[in-house]
Structures are given as C-alpha cells and as structure tokens.
C-alpha cells in the first residue's frame, strides 16, 4: 500500500486525544458513540479524524486503522480486552 510507505519515511505523531479517538473507532464505535464516550461533540471527533487522516496520509477509517496498527500507534482491538460498542452501551436488564 503506497500510503504506508509515504508515512513510514517520516515519524508520525498523534496527540493523546487522536489516539483515544482512533482506538474507539478501531473498536467499531461510530463518531457519535466515540463522542459520547469522550464527552465531546461528534464534530470534535470528526475534526480529530480529519487530522489523523492527514497525518497518516489516508482517506478513511480502515486505512487509518491499518496504518496506525502497522506503525504501532494503536493496538489491534481483536488482540486486546477492549469492550465492544455493544457492551459499552448495553442497558442492564
């Protein structure tokens, strides 16, 4: 993938909040769900995503996840014990 080679030629630095947003998106949260989880607006999450895309030289969430995982910026949520969006928003019966 050419995006990865462009990114790997220079260091990529994401802010703490950008990493938080990307981790939630990687877990399958929508922008709205991530916003609720971080106590910010959906617009703020989308702003962070736009910055992430620019820094990683990608155009969508899947590309951002792949590049960030390959660069070690985030962990693959499948390997971790992170809760899914369904678990995070489940209502106790």
Task: Walk me through what this model shows.
The protein is mainly α and 93 residues long. The protein has one domain: Arc Repressor Mutant, subunit A (Orthogonal Bundle). 59% of the residues lie in helices and 0% in strands. The chain has helices at 2-8, 16-26, 31-38, 42-56, 61-70, 85-88. Helix 2 (16-26) crosses helix 4, helix 2 crosses helix 5 and helix 3 packs across helix 4 (42-56). The chain is globular, with a radius of gyration of 14 Å.
Would you spell out the secondary-structure blueprint of this structure?
Blueprint: H1 2-8, H2 16-26, H3 31-38, H4 42-56, H5 61-70, H6 85-88
Helix pairs in contact: 2-3, 2-4, 2-5, 3-4, 4-5
CATH class, please?
A: Mainly Alpha
Give the strand content: under 5%
Count of separate structural domains: 1
Structural class, by secondary structure, is mainly alpha
Helix content: 55-70%
CATH structural architecture: Orthogonal Bundle
Helical stretch count? 6
